[in-house]
Amino acid sequence: MKELLNTKHINFTGICILLMFFILSCANKTEKKETSIYEDIVQPDKEKKEKEPVKKRSIGAKLFIQCAACHNLKKGEPNKVGPNLHGVFGRKAGTYKGFIYSNALKTSNIVWDENHIRNWLEKPSEYVPGTTMAFIGITKKEQQDALIKYLKNETSK
Ligand code: HEC
Question: Are residues 52 and 63 in the same domain?
């Protein structure tokens, strides 16, 4: 009788343990499911957030990164190493208030338009010999086009 009880007892515990495992594994599955659903919902958002600025940034904007070390574009922003470029199209070269230009640029008699800017971007030191703008130049026409388009847009806001 005792033995019987014992085996019964063992069987009962055994079943209990099995049940617990079963329940636990189910719980695990639902947990996993929840996180994967959660990830499905969250992940695209994450990706969007990471990719958006890159996607939105035009070629011109990317090219301007190399100018941004020295130039601001928006109205009222301070001069940096180079003058603020706000309103540069139609402006006489070397005349932005509060910036000390080279004599070369001040006496160049350039009024900035697309053509002058293109030549300037190609090689500043050749277009206005004696300029203090230390920039090697952009020779690819597509890149000049993209940057000019960006500048036109951003300096007139
Ligand atoms: C290392 C700093 C530096 C970088 C980089 C630079 N510039 Fe300049 N930029 C200057 C300086 C300094 C001047 C004034 C030059 C002078 O007085 O001869 C200037 C002048 C100019 C002017 C004439 C502004 C005026 O008021 O007459 C334009 C247009 C210009 N830069 C555009 C650009 C663009 C576009 C880029 C990027 C492709 C660029 N610059 C990169 C320093 C820089």
Answer: no
